[in-house]
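Tokens in:
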């Protein structure tokens, strides 16, 4: 074994709740340390979901290469297993060119899928079951999963219909959702940078960011996505901003109700992210 092979491979992970400046910090570090960024955001992988997800712009990248952005059509349900496989290829490629990989994003499972050796379920999609479950409300999905596997129900994001459906699919096939084993990556030197703010400051940042996105055309983005064939149902599955914009565009809620719901649900999401990332906080 060569000395180079014995040296741990350095990787930086920038994590934390939404609206804490992860993307900006990733670019700053990349410019100073010859790095390249791998996005770990479960919605920024989709093309066209730009303003609604707060996707970094080419100008904001400042010439730093970014990977795992805009790689799949939003009509397609991209899995964490697919993300893991594709992102690991980019990480190894960055190392092979003598550069520093920097993970930046707020999706905890996406980060863990890279920083840990996790083998995801091989249960194949069940199109008929999925079609049935897509007609369920979130509450009905929650009740179904709780009946099938209460342990999994206690650990899942119960407001995410896509993850609820996948868990029900696996539990229906196997009788339960197997617990994922998170083994450390051998030969990786991982530095975690955990970002956060005090509650009131974070709430203000979430509200200010929403106003800026709406002024920049976030609702028009949602309208264009629908006109290009993205169903309102799929927009609701994509969550947060897209869920409530879809409801507003269908006349189910007013514009002000939409804004209020996005603010409140973004805050709830931030608190869930805090719970996930507290293990990385120093």
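Residues out:
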């Amino acid at each position: 074994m060569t000395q180079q092979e014995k040296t741990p491979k350095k990787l930086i992970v920038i994590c934390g709740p939404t609206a804490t400046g992860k993307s900006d910090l990733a670019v700053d570090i990349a410019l100073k340390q010859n790095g390249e960024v791998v996005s770990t955001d479960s919605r920024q992988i989709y093309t066209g979901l730009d303003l609604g997800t707060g996707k970094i712009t080419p100008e904001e990248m400042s010439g730093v290469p970014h990977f795992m952005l805009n790689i799949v059509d939003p009509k397609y349900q991209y899995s964490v297993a697919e993300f893991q496989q594709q992102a690991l290829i980019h990480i190894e490629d960055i190392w092979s060119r003598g550069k520093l990989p920097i993970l930046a994003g707020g999706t905890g499972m996406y980060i863990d899928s890279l920083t840990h050796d996790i083998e995801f379920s091989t249960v194949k999609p069940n199109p008929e079951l999925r079609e049935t479950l897509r007609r369920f409300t979130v509450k009905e999905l929650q009740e179904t999963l709780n009946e099938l596997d209460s342990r999994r129900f206690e650990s899942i994001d119960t407001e995410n219909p896509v993850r609820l459906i996948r868990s029900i699919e696996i539990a229906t096939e196997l009788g339960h959702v197997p617990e994922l084993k998170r083994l450390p990556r051998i030969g990786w030197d991982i530095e975690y940078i955990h970002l956060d703010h005090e509650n009131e400051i974070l709430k203000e940042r979430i509200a200010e960011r929403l106003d800026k996105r709406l002024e920049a055309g976030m609702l028009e983005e949602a309208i264009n996505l629908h006109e290009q064939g993205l169903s309102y149902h799929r927009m609701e599955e994509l969550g947060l901003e897209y869920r409530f914009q879809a409801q507003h565009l269908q006349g189910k809620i007013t514009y002000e109700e939409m804004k209020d719901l996005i603010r409140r649900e973004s805050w709830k999401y931030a608190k869930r992210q805090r719970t996930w990332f507290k293990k990385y906080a120093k």
